[in-house]
Design brief:
Helix content is about 40%, strand content about 20%. It is an alpha/beta fold. Strand 3, helix 6 and strand 4 form a beta-alpha-beta unit.
């Protein structure tokens, strides 16, 4: 087969890729979970699996590594996600703009702080523009990938030069413990009402690595909790804590919004607060995002 003929075949393969296949891959890449991605897209999980496999066959590369416990991106998958996220976001903006003024996309992970409701109402009244809420269990709520125009970000992780941020508020932390904890030590903790931050260093810690705000590095280097297990989203984190794998720490606001029959939330003394910020891209932010950002400072 000639080189020119091979190139024509490759072009025909790329032409066969459908937009729904790209959206399906991006949803799984962001959620790291086929069930959650299928719910987000409003399709069945078997159909989603077939769609992603068809994309992999067309591009000739494995994009996702699947196990019974989790989904991870291959090197090729990470590269495609990085390029595809901003491209699809710009396409969505263009398509929405055809039918009128595109709304501001406000991204978040597990929940929005109460202050955002009043801020959103004031923004809509002042600009006449709508606000569309976009949940992504991804770093910066998908801001870097173009999934939103402005994002609510929790925690102390450095945001990098590509993002500007402004503090909205600070939230208290609480501890989360399984009601039927395995082991005498955890069982004793579960019966208490208040814990001291320093005490938590004696127990294994369950960490949400994507949208969580509490990691062992928050404690002094010589007195840190051991890592019990990690989760890729808030729901997995809840179930790991409820299963008794270790203690979790979350903002008080998240505890109020997300009850679980298998978990008790305990007040924490001397815990550092969770910083909540608004973040927008440093370069070429959406004009509406700049307006929302400025209003947050003035309110």
């Amino acid at each position: 087969m000639s080189e020119r003929h091979s190139e024509r075949n490759a072009e025909r393969d790329i032409d066969a890729i459908r937009l729904r296949q790209l959206r399906a891959f991006l949803a799984v890449a962001e959620e790291r979970n086929f069930t959650h991605a299928a719910d987000r897209l409003g399709i069945g999980q078997p159909a989603l699996t077939r769609t992603v496999r068809a994309l992999e066959e067309t591009v000739g590369a494995r994009l996702l590594e699947r196990t019974t416990r989790r989904v991870t991106l291959t090197e090729e998958g990470r590269a495609l996600q990085a390029d595809l996220g901003p491209l699809l976001a710009r396409l969505d903006d263009a398509l929405r703009a055809v039918g009128g003024r595109a709304p501001l996309r406000l991204g978040f992970t597990s929940l929005l702080p109460d202050r955002c409701a009043a801020l959103t109402s004031a923004f809509e009244a002042a600009t006449g523009a709508g606000v569309r809420l976009v949940r992504r269990d991804a770093p910066l709520a998908g801001l870097a990938a173009g999934a939103c125009d402005i994002a609510v970000v929790r925690g102390e992780a450095p945001l990098g030069d590509e993002v500007r941020a402004r503090v909205l508020l600070r939230e208290a932390r609480v501890a989360a413990v399984a009601r039927t904890a395995a082991g005498a030590a955890l069982d004793a903790v579960a019966r208490r009402r208040v814990l001291d931050w320093a005490e938590l260093a004696r127990f294994p810690l369950v960490v949400n690595t994507v949208s969580g705000t509490t990691r062992p590095e928050l404690w002094p280097e010589d007195h840190r909790p051991q890592l019990a297990c990690t989760a890729d989203n808030f729901d997995e984190w809840l179930e790991a804590v409820a299963a008794g794998h270790g203690i979790g720490v979350v903002s008080e606001a998240a505890a109020r919004r997300h009850s679980h029959p298998g978990i008790r939330f305990l007040r924490l003394k001397n815990a550092p607060p969770v910083t909540v910020r608004l973040a927008i891209p440093t370069r070429s932010p959406h004009p509406l995002a700049e307006r929302f950002f400025a209003m947050a400072e003035a309110s």
